[in-house]
Amino acid sequence: MAFLYKADPVRGAQWGALFAQQAPDIAFHLWPDVGDPAAIRYLAAWQPPDNPLEALPNLEVIFSVGAGVDQFDLSRVPEHIPVVRMIEPGIAQGMVEYVTQAVLTIHRDVAAYAAQQARQEWKARHVRPASSRRIGVLGLGMLGTAVLERLRLFGFDCAGWSRSGGQIEGVQCHAGAAALDAFLARTDILVCLLPLTQETQGMLDAALFNKLPRGASLIQTGRGPHLNQEDLLAALESGQLDTAILDVTDPEPLPAGHALWTHPRVRITPHIASATRPEGAVETVLENLRRHERGLPLIGQVDRSRGY
Ligand code: NDP
Ligand code: OXD
């Protein structure tokens, strides 16, 4: 049985070492060293080959090395091949760290103090209690839930929104399109942790920003195409939005000279909010290989009709 890894080669080498220790019977290949393409039964990829079955005729399962699968063209993957996204604790841990620092950066006026320091200005600003700051998270999946469970411990007034809602202790969970406006109207800091699908593409636009309280802020950790970047710039200019912290952009990298790079109330990181950790990833993948052999449901199998 052979397994092919086609993503970042440095992390791939770590996966290879873990496979050698934990599953020495599986032949692990690091792209582009495919070996005999007909022997590959499992593929883990960030970007699979264009026609996976032409390249790898006996493929049985495709794993995304990330939590999202929007980078896959699912129409090119035959129905009988399950597509599995990455569910491992390291991704959630990284995202919790990133969103927590972003929320606290906004909540405690870090950018304003940096500007004051540059002017050598010693001036205290009013500190709002966390209980008066309303956080709203779009997406109540693996990541949105982990983030809200942590943020509520600071005492923030926390809410979340998703297609089906959910239940998180101490968090108001809103469900479906009909509940979106009320959720936005009570949100001072909006965090996007939705998957990118036809329904969510372009959702962070002027119409949505206008439903937030004036002076709200955005933390964008989903995918670049969720956000209309021109609408964001206009909302920052008009004061409808105060601050944006962006981990993802469209395109990536954000081109040199783009207005977002130098906007004084925008912070940008290069899609590093969280990343799959090889130890957790290999553990989950090996468990899924055992499940696949036994015909059991796979952890993180994508529902193609929903696209996530
Ligand atoms: P999940 O699939 O676990 O959760 C997705 C959530 O979004 C669910 O609550 C789902 O609702 C909700 N949702 C999906 N579509 C809609 C819709 N049209 N309307 C309302 N709610 C919707 O995903 P994860 O939490 O694991 O990851 C979320 C995304 O985070 C990833 O897809 C990826 O794009 C991004 N990500 C970014 C990273 C970074 O470094 N910046 C790292 C990792 C992930 P329901 O529960 O009802 O199905
Ligand atoms: C992911 C990512 O989807 O890193 O895991 O963006």
TrEMBL record:
Domain of life of the native organism: Bacteria
Pfam families noted in UniProt: 2-Hacid_dh_C (PF02826)
UniProt keywords, alphabetically: NAD, Oxidoreductase
Keyword Transcription regulation applies: no
Residue stretches making up the D-isomer specific 2-hydroxyacid dehydrogenase NAD-binding domain: 102-273
GO molecular function: NAD binding; oxidoreductase activity
Protein name: D-3-phosphoglycerate dehydrogenase
Record organism: Caballeronia sordidicola (Burkholderia sordidicola)
